[in-house]
Amino acid sequence: MTGFAPRTAKIPYGGDYNPEQWPEEVWEEDHRLFGKAGIDTLTVGVFAWSVVQPTPDTYDFTVLDRVLGLAAREGRRVVLATGTAAVPPWLARAHPEVHRTDFEGRRHGYGQRHNFCPSSPAYRRLSTALAGRMAQRYADHPVLLAWHINNEYGGACYCELCARSFRDWLRARYGTLDALNDAWWTTFWSHRYTDWAEIEPPSALTEHWRGPDHTAFQGITLDYRRFMTDALLGCFVAEKEAVRAHSAGTPVTTNFMGPYQPLDYHRWAPHLDFASWDSYPPPDAPPTRAAFAHDLMRGLKGGAPFWLMEQTPAATACRDINPLRRPGELRLASWQAVAHGADAVLYFQMRASRGACEKYFGAVIGHAGREDTRVFREVAALGAELAALGPATLGARTPARTALLFDWDSWWALEISDGPSRLVSYLDVLHGYYRAAREAGADVDVVPVTADLSAYDVVLAPLLHLIKGDVATRLEAVAERGGTVLTTCLSGRNDEHDRAFLADVPGPLGPLMGIRVDEWDARPAHEDRPVRLGDLEAAGSLVFEIVLPRGAEPVGTYTADFYAGTPAVTRHRFGDRGGEGWYVATLLDEAGTGEVIRQVLARHDLLGPYARHRGVESSRRVTPDGTELHFLLNHTAATAELTAHSSATDLLTGKPYEPGDPFTLGPLGVAVLRLA
C-alpha cells in the first residue's frame, strides 16, 4: 500500500470548523476557546463550494484567506477540504442532469448534500476545477496539513448517464457479451443480451422488487454496486489529481464511514495517502463495534495508522433518538481509537450550527459560546492529556497474529441472495466473531481477502460467501504452516460472479475443512436449535447446515430436530505441521461463538492476560523504534482490579509497575502502559 501520512509532533486534536456560518467577530472568540481546549487542528471548507464559487465565473477566496490567516496567526494547522460534497444551487440550475435519479426512477430536484450524479460530466469538470483552484492557491500555505477530498462519499444514481457509464464499465470488465451472459447466467428467464444497449441498471423499475436487496439477477446487481463504487472513486481520483498538480507534497484523504455497505473501501484504499473515518457507532452498540470499525479502517492501508476524522463530543443529531455521551465516555472512545491505530483525534463539530438539521448535533462550543460546560471541560481535559503524551504513539502499528477477512463482495452477494435466509446479517456475524476474539484478548487485523496472510496464526473467515482468485489456496497455506482457519455456514458457495460452484458445499474450501454440506435448513429468528459444545449448551440460529465429515472430527453437535447428533462444529487436521480448518455450520450465539474462538486462540497461545476481566479491553501497538505500548480500557461503571503482567510505566500518570503489582482502572478508566 503506497501513501504517506501528515507529519505532526503529537496527535492532532480538533475537528470540523465552519466559520463561514458565523460573523468574523465570533472567529476570534473561537480561537481563544480552542487555545483553552488544546485544539491545534481544524478541518475547514468541507461545504464551502457556494462560498468560494458563488457564480459559475467567479472564485472568491476572501473568507478562506481570512480563516487560514487567523489559523496561522494562532499557530494551528488545517486539513483543507475541496468543498465538493454538495453542489451549489447555480450549478444544479445550469446543469439539471447533475441531479441523481433514485432507485425508484425519480429524477431529484435541488436539495440536501451528496446530491450529484457521479457520471455527470458537468459535476466532474466543475468539481475538479474547484479542487485545482483550491490547491493552486493554498498549496504553500503554512497551515496546510492535509487535503480532504469531498466528504463521506455515498449513495447511488440510476440515471441514463449512469446507464451509459455502466455499459462502458461492463465492456471493460467482460470484453464480450458472451462473457457477460455467462457471468450473469442470462439463459435464466430469457435474459440473454445481444447488444450492450439492452442492459439497464438494476433498479425498482427493472430487476428488483421489494427494495434494493431483492433482485432477480444477483450478478447484475453485484456488478452495479461494484460499478457505483468505481464511479464515485473516479470522482475522488479526478479531484486528487487536480490537487496533486499543484500540491504534490501534501497527503490526501477522504473520510470514510467504517463498515459502510454501499462502497467497497478496499477498492479505494490504494488511492488514499492515509485512511480516515467518521465514528458514530449506534447508541446501544457494545464497545467492540467501534473497535471493529477502527480495525477495518486500519486494515485499509496494510496496518498503517489512520485518522479519526470525526466523532461527536456530545450527541449526534441524525437519528430518531440521540443519546448524550455520558461523563467519561468521550475520553474513553477517543483513547479506544488511539489504542486501535488512530494518529489523530478530531470532532464534528467545533461550534454548533445555528440553523438547519445539524443545529442540535454535539459540538465543542455550543450556541452560547460557553467554556464552563461539561462537554467543553472534558474536551479540554483530553486535549491536555494528548499534549502531555506528545509523539509517544505516533506511527505505532498493531502486531496482530489474528486476522478477520472482510469482503464487500460477499456482504453484497449474501444479502441480495434469495436463500437460504434473508435474516442473516453479514456485519452482525462478522462482528460476533471479532467480538469473541477481542474479548478473549487477541489483537485482530480486519483485512481484505487479497491480504498477505503469512503473518497470522489464526485467520477467521465467517460468511466467506464468494471465493475469488486464489483465496482458497492462500487459506490452505495458513494451515499448511501450522495455523488455524475458521469459516462458517454460507461460505464457499459461489464464485466472483455469484454463480454456484458445480461441487459440494463449501466448494473450494472443502479440502481444508474436511467436510461436505449435504443440505441446509433455515428457520425464523425465534426457532433456535441447541448445540452441544463440550460442557456448554449453546444455540444456533437462522441457518443449520447438515454436515458430513470427510476427515474432520466433530467439536459440537446439534441436539434437536432430525439432524440431532450431526456435527454443528468440526475441526480438520490439515498439512504436516498440525494446521487446522474449523467449520461452524450454523450461526452460534454469543456463548457458543466465544467458546469456539477461545479454543482456537488457546491453541496458538493468543488468549490475552486480561481476558478474564469482562469489560476491560486490551490492545497493543508497537512504535517505529520498537517500543511496545499496551492500552487498557475499562468499559464498565465499576472499578477493575488488575495485576501488572510486565514492567511498565503508565504514560498518563507516570506511575511505574512491576510484574505482579496490583493496579486499578476506575470506571471508564484508561491506562497507556509503555513496556520497559
TrEMBL record:
It catalyses: Hydrolysis of terminal non-reducing beta-D-galactose residues in beta-D-galactosides. It is an enzyme of class 3 (hydrolase). The keyword Hydrolase applies. Residues 16-388 form the Glycoside hydrolase family 42 N-terminal domain. It comes from the Bacteria. The keyword Hydrolase applies. This is Beta-galactosidase. It comes from Streptomyces polyasparticus.
